[in-house]
Amino acid sequence: MDTPIDISRVTIETERLRLRAWQETDVDDLFEYASVPGVGEMAGWRHHENKAVSQSILQSFIDEKTVFAVVLKSTQKVIGSLGLHPSWANSNETYKDLKTKEIGYVLSKDYWGRGLMPEAVAAVIAFCFERYALDALTCGHFTSNPQSKRVIEKCGFTFVKRSTFFAKQLQKELEDMKYILFSTQQRSRS
């Protein structure tokens, strides 16, 4: 079952990152990484063609209150996003009674391969399990995105199934892999 989470007043600190709510002044940083071809496409959306698209997405992040801005502490620059969304597990007979959220993330191509996203995801996992007592978190990646697969596996998620996902913005069906991570309390009940 979906659990509402409002991140608008939350800040999570890691060694190198600060995860916080988006601000209107973040539009330039968002456009800088979201306009790079291939970045958004790895997550199922088209790269931003202009700053107006970034402004619209930024406003939805602010309004929805479910997506963190991932800020590199050393530069104070927003280099990605990490969202908490309704999970695929909500409609799965095996998991439908669990309190869950789906983690989704995007990172600027300039920062790939530095271990930053596993650092951010691990912090959000702890936040969700400790503060909201979620039973499980889910995550997924397109089969064409091995970088995301590595993040998911580093963070301890377990593979559940392959499926297909229709990416509306890309107007195509993509094969994806779905994963789950149970809280310590949930694992001890099993």
Question: What name is given to the CATH topology?
Answer: Aminopeptidase
Q: What general form does the structure show?
A: globular
* Rounded Rg: 16 Å
* Unreliable runs: none
Our count of helices gives 5
The proportion of residues forming helix, as a percent range, comes to: 25-40%
CATH class: Alpha Beta
Overview of this protein structure:
The protein is built from five helices and eight strands. The protein is an alpha+beta fold. It has a single domain (12-189), classed as Aminopeptidase, CATH 3.40.630.30. Strands 1-2-3-4-5-6-8-7 form an eight-stranded mixed sheet, with helices on both faces. The longest helix is centred in the middle third of the chain and has 16 residues, at 116-131. The radius of gyration is 16 Å and the shape is globular.
Name the descriptors.
190 residues, globular
Give a short overview:
The protein has 190 residues and is an alpha+beta fold.
Strand-helix topology:
Layout: E1 12-13, E2 17-21, H1 27-34, H2 51-64, E3 67-72, E4 77-85, E5 100-107, H3 116-131, E6 136-142, H4 146-154, E7 158-167, E8 172-182, H5 184-189
Parallel strand pairs: 5-6
Antiparallel strand pairs: 1-2, 2-3, 3-4, 4-5, 6-8, 7-8
Helix pairs in contact: 1-2
